[in-house]
Amino acid sequence: MGVTISRVYEINVAKSKFRDAYNAGNLDGLLAVFADECTDMSSGAPSFFGADSKSVFRSRMTRLFEECRATLTVTVIAIRVFANTAFDYGWHSLTLTPRDGGKPITTRQRYFETWQRNSKGEWKIDFYIDNVDVAPMMPGADLPIPLAFCPPDTQRQRDPKLARAM
Length: 166
Known about the structure:
Layout: H1 2-24, H2 27-31, E1 34-41, E2 48-50, H3 51-67, E3 68-82, E4 85-98, E5 105-117, E6 123-132, H4 153-158, H5 160-165
Parallel strand pairs: 1-6
Antiparallel strand pairs: 1-2, 3-4, 4-5, 5-6
């Protein structure tokens, strides 16, 4: 039990480094939390795998930090450890303030990460996926159909029931 609690703490520390690097615009600190070969399935972007993933992530984050100041709030729902592998999930609330003085934009994403413990004993994110969070609803509510299961836009526009579900 003590080993698992210790490893959960280590992942929390690594996740704190992720948040702190994001908020400081520290690209190298942010990238240090990720494995050299990882999978990135960020919402609204193509998926990248292996060494390409970290290179593309570096490019995206360089541009983001040049254009905006970031404030990231992390809410971890749970961390589960299985020997040298773990996963965590929760929410990232991100406020981006344009450096040119524009209006700040805040988004909230649901995220899921897997972590691997490397040969140095460091925990690194090796799989990242997120998507836009939606407002909570009661189970009996008129729940929307997930976008991934919807017909093409032209059919949604013709069918008022499907359009309402969106």
